[in-house]
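User: Hi! I'm working on a homework problem where we have to compare a predicted structure to a textbook description. Could you give me the structure for the chain below?
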Amino acid sequence: MFALSVVLLGSFVLGSIPTSLWMGRLTRGIDIRQHGSSNAGATNTFRILGWQCGVTVLVVDFMKGFTASFWLSRLAFQLGSGPISPPAWDVTTFVPIACGFFAVLGHAFSLLAQFKGGKGGATAAGMLYGIEPISISIAVVIFLAVMFSTRYVSLSTILAVFAYPLIQVFFKHVIGWDIDPSVIILSSIAAAFIIYKHKSNIERLLAGNENRVKSFRPSSGLANQDPEFGKAK
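Assistant: Happy to help. Predicted structure tokens:
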């Protein structure tokens, strides 16, 4: 149990790295949470800082989840006697999912950003790629199809994470794949958490005033509001 506690704490701290916040301060001297959608995530980074910064934040946030579930979780089996397996669950599956989920929690409630982080989509994708890449690959296809057809990143994320546990249920009960129940349960919890974090986006979608992706250039509106925007600080 000590080993499990250590890797879960490490995963939370790893997830707490506020990539977009640091990127905004490093490149433009701004707090990205005060601009655009006020979200400390890759989508708002794309909108405010441009595609180069957005891609960097997306990759780093993805790797936070992947590193926690694929690599950091393995330390649990090297520290002490290893974690305790929950009844009827495969511990080799449970621990990576738990580590990845704690990385998502760290991203959303960052220790290094006054507990005001992002919504966890990219970190959750990285977590799930480290556990079971086929189902998440299908979810990514759903994300891209919806995003390019509607230009709504929020809608794309919501539909993709909603579909992910359903894809796993299909593979397990229709195709006959051997997917541990803990994968489906914790994937569903992660999906519900991410959808909840998008509640403001859902309200804007229903009201018809959600922001669409229109350009991969830095926000011109911010430059108009702040003459120093874009200059090194």
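For your comparison, note the following. The radius of gyration is 18 Å. Residues 85-89, 223-233 have pLDDT under 50 and may be disordered. Good luck with the assignment!
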